[in-house]
Amino acid sequence: MPILNRVSEMHAEITAWRRDLHQMPELGFDVVKTAGFVEQRLKEFGVDEIVKGLGRTGIVGIIKGAKGEGPTIGLRADMDALPITEKSGKAWASKTAGKMHACGHDGHTAMLLGAAKYLAETRNFVGSIAVIFQPAEEGGGGGREMVKDGMMEKFAISEVYGMHNLPGLDMGKFATRNGPIMASTDEFRVTIKGRGGHAAMPHVTIDPVVISAQIITALQTIASRNVDPLQSSVVSVTILKGGDASNVIPNEASFAGTIRTLNDEMRELSKKRLREISQGVAAALGAEASVTIHTGYPVTSNHGEQTGVAVAAAGDVAGVPNVDADVNPMMGGEDFSYMLNARPGNFIFIGNGDTATLHNADYDFNDEVIPHGVSYWVRLAEQRLASLAG
Q: Where are the alpha helices (DSSP H) in 105-207?
């Protein structure tokens, strides 16, 4: 099944929704206008049930099939934007200074709304479809909060599926894999307590800046000397702070960054070695190191059977040669991981073409992708529910 004729007819309407959403970006859980826009569309489509306030500001619509009772599967889109000032120059650019849809969540929301409209019109399936619109993917853990609020149990969701656009992947192509597809996202901060003094008399100080530099260099041995070369671990220091004057060695210095891994064993090993190296090097040089690690999103890991379902649906829409069923994992994070930990499912990438990268001030979602994404959702839902119903 290539792109559906009805979806092609809806393309302009869905594009208009997407551009409306793009102009009103909201951050984190504060997606009240976006959720209201989604709710209004779902009411217009005549979905059977609309539940608000899941995961604080998330919204779920239930669409029942015309072929009888059966299982429920979930299709998820994220709604939040990023604290970035847009520089795309598009006519539909953000109208809110310092906020923009730099990750394509406006496109994800619009595509799932398009699928909801089509499925509510046709209802050519057994069972039910839960269309899930989630807040706070960008660091807030909205997926975790929706799961904690009992979303899976409330709607008896048996499987859950997610999709994200990917710049650099040709438009009309899809990519996914069984197993880990995106990394865990832990954050750390290390504070070095030394003894400050005059910069011209370093011999009477314990210089926390030099010690920080020694630790930062040593942390690179975690990936190169502690982690199995066939595994993945990234330890990146992204913030470094020290003194305020060129002639003063400060009492303290600190640095912070992120740890990314693709399995729990490497995750724990990387955190353990970060603590040991930081505290050990500091102690050897006469200082103290305090280490704080904030546990972030889990590894996003796809399930085998459901990945096969996603690959088949994408192949029907795009053609088998245009689906990479074993794409290399990416070290970015995704809080759809919480939903995949709660229920079996799959997370797939859809090509955004040759556009600016994600989280970039010049980025814009490619509206030509919309028919491909909507057709994928429809094919996946109809095919999987038919299979589950036997």
A: 105-122, 142-148, 151-154
Instruction: For the chain, list the domains and their CATH numbers.
Output: 5-183+298-389 (3.40.630.10), 186-294 (3.30.70.360)
Q: Three-class SS of residue 260?
A: strand
Strand-pair partners of 15:
none
Rounded Cα distance, 316 and 319, in Å: 6
Tens of pLDDT, residues 190-241: 999 999 999 999 999 999 999 999 999 999 999 999 999 999 999 999 999 9
Strand intervals (E) in the chain: 49-54, 58-64, 72-78, 128-134, 157-167, 174-175, 179-182, 186-193, 197-198, 233-241, 248-249, 252-261, 288-294, 300-302, 323-324, 345-353
Strand 58-64 relative to strand 49-54: parallel, antiparallel, unpaired? antiparallel
Query: How far apart, in whole angstroms, are the C-alpha atoms of residue 128 and residue 79?
Result: 22
pLDDT tens, residue by residue, 309-336: 999 999 999 999 999 999 999 999 999 9
Q: Among candidates 81, 119, 124, which has minimal Cα distance to 100?
A: 81
